[in-house]
Structure formats: C-alpha cells, structure tokens
Sequence to fold (277 residues):
Amino acid sequence: MTLNNGVRMPMVGYGVFQVKPEECARCVRDAIETGYRLIDTAQAYFNEEGVGAALADCGVPREDIFVTSKIWISNAGEKAAAASIDESLRKLRTDYIDLMLIHQPYGDYYGSYRAMETALQAGKLRAIGVSNFGVGRFTDLALHMDVKPAVNQVEAHVFSQQTALEKVLREYDTAMMAWSPLGQGRNGLFTHPVLAVIGKTKGKTPAQVALRFLLQRGIVVIPKSTHVERMQQNFAVDDFELSPAEMEEIAGLNEHDSGNVDFENPAFIRYLIETYG
Fold:
C-alpha cells in the first residue's frame, strides 16, 4: 500500500513480538528467505539487535526491506524519544527506519511524536505513526501535530475487527496495521468452522482465510511464527480472494470491536506507568 506521505509499505509482514533475542536473527532470516519484506519489531521486544543482524547478513538490499520499530513508554518525551531513535538505529544497524511508532498512548507521547517529526525531517525515519491509540487519543493527536500519523497499529483479527476505529483512520488516510492478526489462536481460530468451510473451497487453511479477510479490508498484517512452514503459510495469502458474501459471513464473527486489551483501563495504565514509565 501507499501511505499518506507517499511511502510504499508491504501489506504482509513478519512480527517478532515474543521472539526470543537469541533466536530472532534466525527467524528474521527465515522470514526474509520466505519472501517477507516487512519486519516489525519494537524497543520493548528487546530483539532489535537480532533484526539488525539479520538485515546485515540476509543478502537482500536494505532498501528492499521495510523495517518498523516502536518507542516504548520509558523513552517518552521529546529528548528521551530522540535519543531512543538513535539507539534503535544503532541496534538495527541501519541509517534509517522505515516506520517508527509510539508504542503506547501514555506519558508524554506528544513530545515523542515531536521527536519523530524531527527525525523524519532529518531522514532518520521515512514514516511515523502510533500504536494502540483508540479513537479519542488518535483523533486528538492527529488534529494537533503537523504530520498526520501514517499508521496506527492495533490488535485486529476476525473476532476483534476494529470497525469503529477503521472509519476514523480513513478520515486521516491513516493505515491500520494488525498485531495479533490470528488472535493468538483464541476461540479456536485455527479450526473455526466458518473459516474452515470457506478455506476448504479455496484450498486454504482457516488462518490464511483470517489473514485474507483483513487484507481485503486494507489492513496490514504482521503474523508471527518461529516455524518456517507456518511462515510460508502465513505469507501465501495473495493468490485467492474472498467473495462479498464470504467477507460478510466472517464479519459476523466480530465479538468486540477494540481488542482484548483495554487500553483505557486505569489499573492497566497505572501498572504500565509504574512498571516502565
């Protein structure tokens, strides 16, 4: 897809959340060999260095790989965020990061966003955005900053479809990127009868159908697996299409519109700030 600043971004990527630092380089190399050209990491995953090692020795030119990272809440604020961007660049062994996001909508995220705007102008970043921002905080930020967020990365899958947020993002030409696009296997997603029946007619797995559903809505997906076979399956989702009737049937699986994590929960916010802020 083309982001709102003209930068091109792959719609199927490989996420490294919960990939152990010691196996991250191997996993990212496997993903790149499979064909992935979008790699999503974060400061809080503690595996940026593994991603950087894979970028350095994968044999694919840096400009052909789209790298996303995220500023953690302990680095919130203009000065701290600016320093953390430089640290991420060092760990990733790159002169630029294709997309930098604010990981959580807490702390001085306005200062963090100003730091990203400055880094964007300096060429350290190619695009900037946010992660886990709900309708209210996203809208407020978008109205007050010079650069509109290119991406909002949120939990989205067939059981949590983010339709209300999707409408708001569309007003700002902001792309949605889905973390946990397979719902971490909840609700029996990998064997769900609706997805299985549709998949059987197309020679695809329920997981592939679930990913295709998001892609046809224009949502970027970043599934994670440490197994090459599953990486390959997750990547093979561009050779079939869901009909309008099938899309409507899957839309009926939506159970809650804004994910399993309540980012407005005071106890959750207090825990994150007291632990990491």
